[in-house]
Amino acid sequence: MKKEWYAAKELVGIGGFPTTPQAINQRAKAEGWRKQRRSGVQGRAIEYHISSFPPNVVAELAAREDSQGYQVEPPNTIKAWSAIYYQLTDEERELLTTFVMREGINSLFERLGLERRSASMKEKPELECEG
């Protein structure tokens, strides 16, 4: 692990630790944890050394630190769809656009509690409220 010193607020709720920084500070004092003043912070800011923590807390802190390196950026879906769209023929683009718009409109009507009466996409729809 790279990080060795932790502030009470970073330890809240980890591995069964108390849920407030004040309670963690009380436990640290009672158990005689190794501590130091936080550098660059005004006041009585204290941080505690990892060697003072129970094994389950150390394991959870290590797991959290390791998982931070594996965060993956979400894919750029607009770029992906744009690339797909421009590989289609004009006819395919028109069919796809019509389909997506129709499904979107149908979903909107469904959410609004409206029912479509027309069977054809080219006919003007008649709306009826279900409620």
UniProtKB/TrEMBL annotation:
Keywords: DNA-binding. It holds the Pfam family HTH_Tnp_Mu_1. This is Mu DNA-binding protein. It comes from the Bacteria. Residues 2-69 form the HTH Mu-type domain. It comes from Enterobacillus tribolii. GO terms for molecular function: DNA binding. The keyword Membrane does not apply. The keyword Repressor does not apply.
